[in-house]
Design brief:
By secondary structure, this protein is mainly α. The protein contains six helices and no strands. It starts with 6 loop residues before the first helix and ends in a 24-residue tail after the last helix.
Length: 147
């Protein structure tokens, strides 16, 4: 019953969820078939509810911060990240096919999930370029000057 939870309890829940998903993302750094950024996106949301300073630290991360910003602001995935995700998904398909070949129903479920993940990633837009005010060297937005 979330409606009956007190504000301090919601803050603690946000922190606990944030730490859990942050830890899962950290594991994803060293385990090839486990992602990092999706877990950190959930951690970003949870820290927004429970600990804004930790949320800010995630957004300021030198490696993952830019991807988190782009997703948060535009719902976009950079092309390079898409390629990395597809390579990881391909590795997962191969590994799961090898391990689960004697359990076809389980394998079909896993492959369906991975296919859905690939479809979701493929249909996300790529980030639009960030334009600095007064910077004439930035590329115009798509479709500008047409029509």
């Amino acid at each position: 019953m979330i409606g009956a939870m007190t504000q301090p309890a919601l803050i603690l829940l946000g922190r606990a969820l944030g730490l859990l998903f942050l830890a899962l993302g950290l594991i994803g750094i060293v385990v090839p078939v486990m992602p990092t950024v999706p877990f950190w996106l959930v951690a970003l949301w949870a820290f927004g509810k429970g600990h804004p300073a930790w949320r800010a630290r995630l957004l300021a991360h030198p490696v993952y911060g830019p991807s988190l910003h782009v997703w948060y602001e535009q719902g976009a995935i950079p092309r390079r990240a898409k390629y990395a995700a597809f390579i990881g998904l391909g590795f997962s398909v191969a590994l799961c096919s090898f391990v689960l070949h004697e359990r076809p129903i389980v394998l079909a479920g896993v492959l369906a999930f991975l296919a859905g993940s690939a479809f979701f990633i493929a249909t996300r837009p790529e980030p639009s370029p960030v334009r600095v005010k007064g910077d004439s060297s930035a590329a115009p937005p798509p479709g500008a000057g047409q029509g």
